[in-house]
């Protein structure tokens, strides 16, 4: 038996919105300590990893490890029926391994909706993500990162991210011209969500597809801050914290620059 009750059901809606356009079918692995999700996009360029601890739920029971193969479009249809302050319970019974139940309860308890979603069979191995020492970490407002990706998409389909001592520059070039947005290290501002911190070991200059970064930025409602981790010989990591209870991390391989 697996059962998890989330007091703030809006969080589950935000998590799904953050992953569903990147991964159409996902394997939600549940054990005694957490729910995890890992999946790659269809072109195998980007990877998403979600980790949500059992402590995020006000009731969590998992008698044995269970993997729920979810079609994210179908799951989204159900969650659109929920208000952000609804209580959402996920249930999977041992005697029916092909379905998962979702129960939506209004905050006052005056309305309960019960849905059953058919699970899909997904053959996917968990990828081992190696521990990496990154050359640069940029922590900034998630909303600002989303705006930068959206604005630069008006100029080109790729963004060049350059990190130097006290700043990070985002650049894009296309038929209409070029755009450059520079953020300076500003950790001393009063509000954390307005600060930019650049932790640099060595300069980094890499180019990434904006299409994927725009998809990643759909996780902005989950966290006020986002952290970008870069190294010349490793994929970019874009991380959003889910409070103190977990995270969503995206991994994106850089675009290979063709020699002149």
TrEMBL record:
GO terms for cellular component: PCNA complex. One of its GO terms (molecular function) is DNA binding. One of its GO terms (biological process) is leading strand elongation. It is found in: Nucleus. The keyword Nucleus applies. Keywords: DNA replication, DNA-binding, Nucleus. This is DNA sliding clamp PCNA. It comes from Holothuria leucospilota. Residues 128-255 form the Proliferating cell nuclear antigen PCNA C-terminal domain. HAMAP family: DNApol_clamp_arch. Pfam families: PCNA_C, PCNA_N. Belongs to the PCNA family. Signal peptide: none annotated. SUPFAM superfamilies: DNA clamp. This protein is an auxiliary protein of DNA polymerase delta and is involved in the control of eukaryotic DNA replication by increasing the polymerase's processivity during elongation of the leading strand. Residues 1-126 form the Proliferating cell nuclear antigen PCNA N-terminal domain.
């Amino acid at each position: 038996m697996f059962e998890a009750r989330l007091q703030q059901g809006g969080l589950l809606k935000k998590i799904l919105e953050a992953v569903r356009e990147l991964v159409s079918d996902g394997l939600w692995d549940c054990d005694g300590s957490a729910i995890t999700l890992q999946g790659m996009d269809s072109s195998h360029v980007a990877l998403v990893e979600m980790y949500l601890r059992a402590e995020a739920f006000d009731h969590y029971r998992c008698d044995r490890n269970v993997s729920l193969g979810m079609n994210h479009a179908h799951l989204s249809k159900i969650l659109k029926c929920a208000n952000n302050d609804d209580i959402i319970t996920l249930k999977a019974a041992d005697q029916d391994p092909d379905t998962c139940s979702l129960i939506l309860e209004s905050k006052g308890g005056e309305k309960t909706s019960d849905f059953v979603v058919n699970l899909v069979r997904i053959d996917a191995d968990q990828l081992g993500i190696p521990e990496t020492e990154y050359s640069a970490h940029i922590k900034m407002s998630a909303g600002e990162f989303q705006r930068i990706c959206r604005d630069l998409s008006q100029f080109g389909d790729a963004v060049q991210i350059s990190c130097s001592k006290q700043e990070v520059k985002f650049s894009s070039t296309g038929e209409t011209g070029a755009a450059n947005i520079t953020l300076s290290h500003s950790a001393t501002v009063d509000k954390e969500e307005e600060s930019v911190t650049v932790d640099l070991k060595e300069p980094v200059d890499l180019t990434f597809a904006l299409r994927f970064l725009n998809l990643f930025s759909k996780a902005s409602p989950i966290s006020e801050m986002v952290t970008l981790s870069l190294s010349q010989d490793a994929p970019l990591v874009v991380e959003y914290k889910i409070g103190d209870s977990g995270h969503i991390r995206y991994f994106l391989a850089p675009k290979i620059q063709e020699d002149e």
